[in-house]
Amino acid sequence: MTVAAPGEGAITTYPGNRYAAGWGTSFSTPLVAGGMALLAQMNYGLDQEHARAAITHAAPVGQGLGAGRLDLFPACSYQATHWF
Questions:
Q1: Quick one: which H or E segment has residue 43?
Q2: What angle do CA 83, 59, 53 make, to 5 degrees?
Q3: Is the pTM of this model over 0.85?
Q4: Most CB atoms closer than 10 Å: which of 3, 30, 78, 83?
């Protein structure tokens, strides 16, 4: 299963106490990892199967992008109503 995460124009911290936009998987990967950490915080017993089920509630964005764009609101909503 795959999801897409924003990797273009992601706002991040920048030296000099500023913010800047960044591009590439180096910026999208932490968003997905942080999303999984949030889901795990909601349920310490979260396993791979249940994490996958939660993140498949992504926003559809078109063909070739798996389940769609990672959207944490429906993923967290699903996780909150499907305790195991």
A1: none
A2: 30
A3: no
A4: 3
Token duo for residue 41: 């915080």
The conformation of residue 24, written as its DSSP 8-state character, comes to S
DSSP string, 45-78: T--HHHHHHHHTSPBP--TTSTT-B--HHHHHHH
Alpha-carbon distance values, 42 to 4, 6, 56, 76 (Å): 22, 23, 17, 8
Please, are residues 79 and 39 in contact by the beta-carbon 8 Å criterion? yes
Angle at which helix 25-42 crosses helix 48-55, to 10 degrees, equals: 110
